[in-house]
Structure formats: C-alpha cells, structure tokens
Design goal:
Elements lengths: L1 H8 L8 H12 L7 H23 L19 H18 L7 H5 L7 H14 L13 H4 L4 H20 L1 H8 L8 H16 L4 H18 L4 H11 L11 H8 L5 H27 L1
Helix pairs in contact: 1-3, 1-13, 2-8, 2-11, 2-12, 3-14, 4-6, 8-11, 9-11, 10-12, 10-14, 11-12, 12-14
Length: 292
C-alpha cells in the first residue's frame, strides 16, 4: 500500500516523479509553452486523489480491522525539522504562485526567465546556508548528506531529454510517428485508454523513467502527424508510467518495498494487475473530461 500510494502520489505535482519532468521537457521541446506547476496540478491532483482511494478500497477489501498496530512515538518536532519544513513549504508556495494568479510573482518582480528550477536552486542554497538551530555551525543541509542524493536519476532524466532531441533531429521520431498517423481518427476515449494501457504494461518491463524517455518524443511526433494536440497523448502517458504496480522493476517505490522481503513477486503481480487496469481507466477517464 505504501509503495502504490507513493507511485500515484507523485502524479499530483510536476516534481513528484521523473516521468512528469520528462513529459514537461519533451512538450516544451515541441515548441509549446512550458506547463506551470498549477497547470499540471489541475489534472494531476484529481488523478492522484482518485487513485489513492481506488488503491485503498482494493487493498483493504480483506482487512477486518481487528488487528492493532502500535507505532513508535516520534516525539516533538526538533528545530532542524521545523526549519526544513518551513523551507519546503515556502518552496512549494513559490512553485504554485510563480505564474498564477495575475501573472505570478515572476511578473511582479520582473523575472520573466524564472522557472521551477530557479525556485529549487534558491531552496537548496537556503538549506546549505540556514543554521540547524541545535549545534553551533551545523546547517540544515551539508555536503555529506547531499552526496547521498541519487544523482544518477537526474542524469537519467537529462539523458532522456537529450535522447528525445536526438530522435527529433535525426528524423526518427517523424518516421516512427508516420506509422501511427491514423490515430487521430480513433475515438478520443479509446485513444487515451489505449495509450494508458500500453504505457502501464511497458513500464512493468523497464523503469518508468526509461519508458517515458523513449516514448515521449514518439508520442509528440505522432500527435503532430495526426493533427492532435500532443498534450492529449503525453500527459496520460506520463501518468500511466507511475501506475505500474505489478513488478518491482517498474518504479522505485515498488523496488524498495519488494526489497524488504515482506512481499513476493506473485502477490505484487496479483494485486497490481487489477490496479493497473483500474489506473488506466481512471487516467483515461479523467484526462478525457479535463483535457478534451
């Protein structure tokens, strides 16, 4: 349940999971305006909340509620925790209000080039500079801690954007997309459901980041060749990449939970298959009403 909730929780915001960032980068590379934090949340949050409820209902169907679990007492909040949470809260607020309302703070402060990466960069600087509040000279973030960040994931996302540009410049995207040039004649709901199912089950064989890195430039080119708005194909695909629940390789949360040894592949696949189908249905349905 924790792994599945982490998967769908990341759908809600652009920074929640790498496929979201890959999709936004690929969409911008097609010459479209950059999606803002709030624009993504308008369709990401409904999908995320709906899937959390679906997962809860499905996984708790056999839970009797008679077992009692005693959780350890976390104690009171410490100063470093409070200050870190404050920085994170201000960062989220800056992301949300960057472009809205009324042009956002980037318009008020005459900073037209400011983007979500700029906000994150300032937040990191604050974490390195602000004192922790308990030990003298201790900061909220030090390099020893930062060095444990999985930088390889960031490189993978960047490599995916480079791969997409290579597809575009070489003409490979257009060649592959020409095969799917007739998809524009399909009913929109059928098209969305087909893409959601395709991406969901492809992600079971590779990581969701790798799947979106390969598919986004192809979907973008296919949409253009079919005279369809690329966002109609790319957003459902990005969301579906986070709704692969059957195998550990699909997403990082799946792998982490499987690594505890408490969950077998057979059980994960049995529960995940139904959730895969439910996820594709939820994503295609919500995107149909919000994006069409």
């Amino acid at each position: 349940g924790i792994a599945f909730a982490a998967n769908v929780g990341g759908i809600g915001t652009p920074i929640g999971t790498p496929p979201n960032l890959v999709m936004m980068g690929a969409y911008k590379d097609l010459g479209h305006p950059e999606l803002s934090f709030t624009e993504w949340m308008k369709f990401g949050v409904p999908v995320s909340l709906t899937m959390v409820i679906v997962i809860w209902l499905w996984l708790s169907r056999k839970v009797t509620g008679k077992e009692r679990i005693d959780l350890p007492d976390p104690g009171s909040w410490r100063q470093p925790e409070i200050r870190t949470m404050l920085v994170f809260g201000l960062t989220a607020l800056a992301w949300i209000t960057r472009s809205e309302p009324f042009g956002g703070w980037k318009t008020w402060l005459n900073l037209p080039q400011a983007n979500d990466a700029s906000v994150a960069f300032v937040a990191v600087i604050l974490l390195f500079c602000l004192p922790g509040g308990e030990k003298k000279g201790e900061r909220l973030l030090d390099w020893r801690t930062a060095n444990r960040i999985p930088w390889g994931m960031l490189v993978l996302v960047g490599a995916g954007l480079c791969l997409g540009e290579g597809f575009k410049q070489s003409g490979l995207s257009a060649t592959i997309a020409s095969v799917f040039s007739g998809i524009g004649s399909l009913p929109l709901i059928a098209l969305l459901l087909g893409i959601a199912l395709l991406v969901t089950f492809l992600t079971e064989m590779t990581s969701n980041t790798a799947t979106t890195n390969v598919l986004m430039p192809i979907l973008g080119a296919a949409a253009i060749a079919s005279d369809v708005d690329p966002i109609l194909l790319m957003i459902p695909a990005a969301m579906s990449a986070s709704c692969a629940f059957m195998l550990p390789v699909a997403t990082i949360p799946n792998a982490v939970v499987f690594g505890t040894g408490e969950i077998t592949v057979r059980r994960m696949a049995r529960e995940g298959l139904v959730l895969n189908l439910m996820g594709a249905s939820v994503i295609s349905g919500i995107c149909y009403f919000l994006l069409s």
